[in-house]
Specification:
With 259 residues, the protein is α/β, with parallel strands linked by helices. It has 2 domains: 55 residues, Vcp-like ATPase, Chain A, domain 2 (Roll), CATH 3.10.330.20; 187 residues, 3-Layer(aba) Sandwich (Rossmann fold), CATH 3.40.50.150. The protein is built from 6 helices and 13 strands. The protein has a 7-stranded mixed beta sheet with strand order 9-8-7-10-11-13-12, with helices on both faces. It has a 4-stranded antiparallel beta sheet with strand order 2-1-6-5, covered by helices on one side. The longest helix has 13 residues.
Amino acid sequence: MHTTSIGDLIQLVSTKDQKTFLLIIDQDDKLETHHGIIKHSDLIGQPYGDVVSSHLGAEFLVLTPSISSIARTIKRKSQIIFPKDLGLILLRLSIQPGQKVIEAGTGSGALTLTLAQAVGPHGMIYSYDIRADMQELAKQNLELVGMNKRVNLKTRDICDGFDEQNIPAIFLDIPNPWDYLAQVHNSLENGGFFGALVPTTNQVSTLLEALKQAPFGLLEVVEVMLRNYKTNPERLRPSDRMVAHTGYLIFARGLTQLK
């Protein structure tokens, strides 16, 4: 039976309202929630999938957190890339264990930690952001989930290009990705995967025009919409709310310079 131990990253989910908490078990720490206090010492040795109770008697499930739940729960100062988009990004960029990947626009680190999980302990994510405060927050989030050693955070503008060369995949989460296609192409390996996220259609049009004038091909524009269903088997129907537009994803392949 798999049980918790000191240093584990765990997810506690309230059985009453499904409120989620992420924490690393520390013998002397405690978690204060709206349903009461849980001592970390009471979590040590608990079987995963079991329940623990707060000092008020409220029950919480003890789980191993998914990357999706981590991305939704981390501290943020900016809008994160939603889990519904993160999965498609990994597939379209063909992210694999051991790879090196560049991203620009670290933000709060949702994509950063997702990429870090995908490349594994032998891969490396080079993450650029011009804002030091965002990189510091991303650093804290990466340390929380134990992914910080897989990420090289670089606080600077990418106008002068990236330090790395022959990278198989590059993703830009910045307002004006079209201004940096030359820098992307210079660091992307021949045939490598490029992706970007922008929130509006006029940004998509501007990026597409720039991509068609640069050595990129196999262009694709995707919008992912997610509709959950209520889980009552006797009244199965869509939820009242859905995660609709969050951003447009643009993908392309880097090509050899056309003559």
